[in-house]
């Protein structure tokens, strides 16, 4: 297979947190002969926009991103070149692959050997420490790109690569079992609406928490049994307990990017319950009652995206139709307005950018 690889491309570039996003059409494309061993060049079909990209654009996390930055880490495309002298590549030119948050890791350290490669100290992060998927051609790494199963469209697979795998893993480690209740603050957003579906696929019962009629309809349509509007409730703990038959949920998977979504989790969780810490408000701290965390035997677990195996498993579930991303397609030029909508809480599900 041979590809005509252009010298320049369209890319959305962030020069600084205050500057407008600059969609350029003259951004250089790394040429095949310039790729290092282990690198591959992927021609993007599409890419999802995650709230993490908005954090990166604003620079509101404790560790700031590289600048200038091309964001994006939910990309699907086709490998058009692989660096010379790449040994034992698990993928080949022409393969359809996904680019996720974890672009690369050393594969040799303790974390990598234990399958916790997302916490590798040498990890490269798409759209944060290395340029991401908001460009037509992306340099990625053969050992970490994710093969996309045949029976799923690229636009449907895109957000499984971050939102999907993240909530899939959080649910997997949430110490729940079939028939248990899980509460999902942020349920109408990108991560949350997929979490409802993965939870259902695992036999869990879902209380969705978010706000507004559109997100309510989406959550109920996707299989949430109960809905609570966090802007309307007068007593969140009471409402959650009531929704779960009085005792509270067995787990909470918090997928909201705001600290209030965490505040009462210890109060509403059932004894022995688990708080899965997923949503990432930049500088917030967890204020849990030590007394009730002990007294109720509560587990508090941080959950960070997923490893290569989690990505394959999350995609497999989606490719069998058990989980479907609810998305609208836009062009790369709409990125600023997508961020504005996300900031205002107006995006139900996901926005996927077409890169063709
Ligand atoms: P999103 O904007 O699509 O969804 C967030 C949702 O939370 C929105 O629907 C919003 O209305 C809702 N919300 C806000 N305040 C709330 C509250 N008090 N109670 C309940 N719901 C509330 O964002 P997203 O792309 O789904 O990402 C969510 C967060 O998860 C971001 O902080 C992102 O950086 C983080 N994230 C973490 C990981 C990880 O590995 N842990 C991976 C991906 C994303
Ligand atoms: Zn993400």
Describe the structure.
With 356 residues, the protein is α/β, with parallel strands linked by helices. It folds into two domains: 8-162 and 306-354, Medium-chain alcohol dehydrogenases, catalytic domain (Quinone Oxidoreductase, Chain A, domain 1, Alpha-Beta Complex), CATH 3.90.180.10; 164-302, NAD(P)-binding Rossmann-like Domain (Rossmann fold), CATH 3.40.50. Helices cover 25% and strands 24% of the residues. The chain has helices at 51-58, 110-113, 154-157, 163-172, 190-201, 213-221, 236-243, 260-263, 265-268, 290-295, 308-319, 335-343, and strands at 8-13, 22-28, 39-48, 75-82, 96-99, 102-104, 124-125, 137-141, 146-147, 181-185, 205-210, 226-229, 251-254, 274-277, 299-302, 327-331, 350-354. Strands 3, 4, 5, 8, 9, 16 and 17 form a seven-stranded mixed β-sheet that branches. Strands 12-11-10-13-14-15 form a six-stranded parallel β-sheet, with helices on both faces. Helix 12 (335-343) links the parallel strand 16 (327-331) and strand 17 (350-354). The longest helix is centred in the middle third of the chain and has 12 residues, at 190-201. It is globular and about 65 Å long. The two termini are 19 Å apart. The mean pLDDT is 97. The structure holds nicotinamide-adenine-dinucleotide (NAD) and zinc ion. Nicotinamide-adenine-dinucleotide (NAD) binds at residues 50-52, 55, 162-163, 166, 185-186, 188-192, 209-211, 215, 230, 255-258, 260-261, 278-280, 303-305, 342, 345, 347. Zinc ion is lined by residues 50, 52, 73, 101, 162.
